[in-house]
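Bench notes, afternoon.
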Amino acid sequence: MKRIRRSGKSLVAALLMSVTAASAEEHAGPTSGNVESGPKPAMKHTAPACSDARPDCAMTVFPAFDRKGRLWVAFSVGKTVYAAASTNGGKNFAAPVVVATVGETGVIDSHGDARPKIVAMNDGGLLVAYTTRPDKQMIGTIFTARSTDGGRSFSTPQAMLAEGGQRFDAWAISPKGRIYAGWLDKTHALKAKAEGRDFAGSGVAFGWSDDGGATFNGKSILMDHACECCKMSAALDRDGLPVFAWRQVFEDGVRDHYAAKLSADGSSLSGGRVSDDNWAINSCPHQGPALAIDGAGVWHVAWFTKGKTRQGLFYAASRDGGKNFSPPEKIGDEAHAPAFAALLAVKDRLYRVWKEFDGNATSIPFQMSRDGGKTWSAPHVLATAADASDNPQLVANNKGAGYLSWVSHKEGYRLIPLPRDEKSASIR
């Protein structure tokens, strides 16, 4: 196993309908600290549906179930990050709790691949993570805040690092309660820029906490040259160690995908390239990979590419810890621009969902596999939206039930049970 140490029309329409069309802001022009390059699209962020402090008004919503079965969501409206709980499957939420509010010149990363997140801990505590950055700059700071009183209040937020620039965090919590975090880190890129050297992308950094998020250890870059504006994803392997997936910048500016496991001591990564798509692009795709790991230890990855080798939304699996991946399998109806996939492994079921756009409405199709991704059920549509919408999120409760979490402008927030078989699938 490789060891790495520190060192067409429908697609455009779908992106315009998606909140992740926000990539425009990230290419709004040169700013201090922004080392991204490439075209400057004319697209803008979709305006929020409303301005009330509730999930229905959020651009993005991130879900988690606590040990009591309550649904928690993290979201932002305006310059404030909130957490809110529901005991009836997202139909109603208790009054949201303020986690943090940013200053006049700051913004909260909350669009498409970037969003506030919430982690439900084994002891009943909660951890909220969010990223702030100066308006129109791409150098961010990840903050975390804890709740030890069941979500009634949150601690004063603390920065993961005081400098360097961090964004696009991903989280996993082990059965023993260790909280793992991965993020994209600009420390090496900024140093190279200050020294007049070229540097592609960001570093990939990792840390962990054994005290419920009060402090984090590690916080080191273990690999350089990740695509700086696509999300990371995280999942626990069956040995309790975390696996992360991200878009990596390879030679000649090729932005394909990589998946790797963090070692037990947090000092190294082991894994490999997911596929050779050969997508050479001098700008940001703004679409990171999805990752899930099932009970047999199979790594499942879904991703989007417009490479020379293949184009579209794809899925592959590794049954040897990331050494090798199966041949990429195309997902969705190519005529409807499939994108923004999510994966979930729960009990003996593996789910995948994604977005499609038919020119009039956005839909979320789903498929299910009961043999570790070798075969899949026929696609069925779980939900539709008539206007702009977030990217789909998948979440499971402690009883093994899976759900689609989705917010859209006209329909608001929805938590939709994932069917346990094809016969129970229906459009919501």
